[in-house]
Amino acid sequence: MKLFISAVNYSIPFAPKDPDDLRYALAEAIGPTIRPSKKYEEKFGNANLDMIAVLERKTKELEIKGPTVDSELVDFGIWLPYKKMKNSSNYRLSYFNYFCEGILTLLRKYDFDTLETEKAIDELRKKLFQAK
Q: How far apart are CA 95 and CA 10, in angstroms?
């Protein structure tokens, strides 16, 4: 099983720039830590996993939608709370934190061991957002 992280951005006027660099760094950091659980394999076989960050203006709370399933790929949408992120003091950190919360919630739902993933997220958060 491979992990993919992607995004969908609905047309939002005056939206901050899409933080694609955060998603790339996150995929690189957590990809090696994710091993399929028995529950995931029983439900989806050896299909790859795609977690899609969805940004839409009317989403008020973090939501996970899906999956959309075929034999090779399982897609989940992680809908991020746009206004909460936009009104935060650090949009990029807020985006990162909400997206990671969604990823971990999803992994826990399917009984993945998240200990290494949590460590990788914490290390990446420090690397990206620690004051220099």
A: 15
